[in-house]
Amino acid sequence: MYSFDMHKATSVANAVALLAQSGGKALAGGQSLIAAMKLRLAQPGALVDLSAVPEMKGIRKEGDAIVIGAMTRHAEVASSQVVKDAIPSLAALAEGIGDRQVRNMGTLGGALANNDPAACYPSAVLALNATVHTNKRQIAADAFFKGMYETALAEGELITSVSFPIPKKAAYIKFVQPASRFALVGVFVAQTGSGVRVAVTGAASSVFRAKALEDALGKAFTNDAARAVKMDASGMNSDLHGSAAYRAHLIPVLAGRAVLAAG
After folding, report:
1. What are phi and psi of 37, to 5 degrees?
2. Could you give the CA distance from residue 257 to residue 156 in angstroms, rounded to a whole number?
């Protein structure tokens, strides 16, 4: 590690001011940023710690949605009775992230801002048609994820919370890469009031919606309907863990399992 300045923000406004003054990076759970700094893949001269910002924490039900603060830890989402009662698939997703240390340190906002191609939370945001709230605006799920490690967030813009509409049915199934616990492929299926949404993570450079699966499951919300869909392998990731064709094959299989798990 190298030397850098550390600032502790006390509010969202204070965090934004400190980031502007220092030219540094925001520190949420640090599970990705600190590792990148150790490898010199990121070398900020300053960090602004968000852990003491009260308005970025907490879980609550607001009307037909669950609102989760950006600095809420994965373990808190996994254990929240509010989340379990309203969107049990979201609590289960959080419980399956990484290991215990990652779940106790990693945050919802940090995971979304980082947008790792194999992260689990982006699939929940996209499938549940969530809204990302920042210090400047509200961003719809379909407009938030732009590409590998890229989002719609502008310079100095911080995620403050995420609003998840409560679905009729939903489930997330991932094929785990055992060394990292990331998703080799993960599929989140949600049956909502406006139709079926299916989001896939781990298979491409960024999370994406599988329109062919959405169309098929909109007609028949069954395992057979999901598994009958053939996914195009072009643009899929291919590495030592699985070829593009293998990932394309896994998507409808996991979607079918998610349908069964949703009930």
Report:
1. -65, -40
2. 40
Domain boundaries, the chain: 5-49, 56-165, 169-262
Instruction: Please tell me the number of Cα atoms within 13 Å of 103 on its side-chain side.
Output: 18
**In contact, 86 and 61? CB cutoff 8 Å:** yes
CB within 8 Å of 45: residues ≥ 6 apart: 4, 5, 22, 23, 24
pLDDT < 50 stretches in the chain = none
CATH of the domain spanning 169-262: 3.30.390.50
Distance CA 125, CA 249 (A): 23
Q: What CATH architecture is 5-49?
A: 2-Layer Sandwich (3.30)
Q: In angstroms, rounded to a whole number, what is the distance separating the alpha carbons of residues 79 and 62?
A: 19
Termini Cα distance of the chain: 48
How big is the CA angle at 232 (ends 89 and 164), to the nearest 5 degrees?
25
pLDDT of res. 208 = 98
Torsion, CA 171, CA 78, CA 72, CA 24, rounded to 10: -80
User: Among candidates 137, 151, 159, 129, which has minimal Cα distance to 12?
Assistant: 159
The strand pair at 65-69 and 59-62 is best described as antiparallel
β-bridge partners, 132: 139, 162
CA distance 27 to 49: 5
DSSP for residue 155: T
- Domain 56-165 sits in CATH 3.30.465.10: yes
Segment 131-151, tens digit of pLDDT: 999 999 999 999 999 999 999
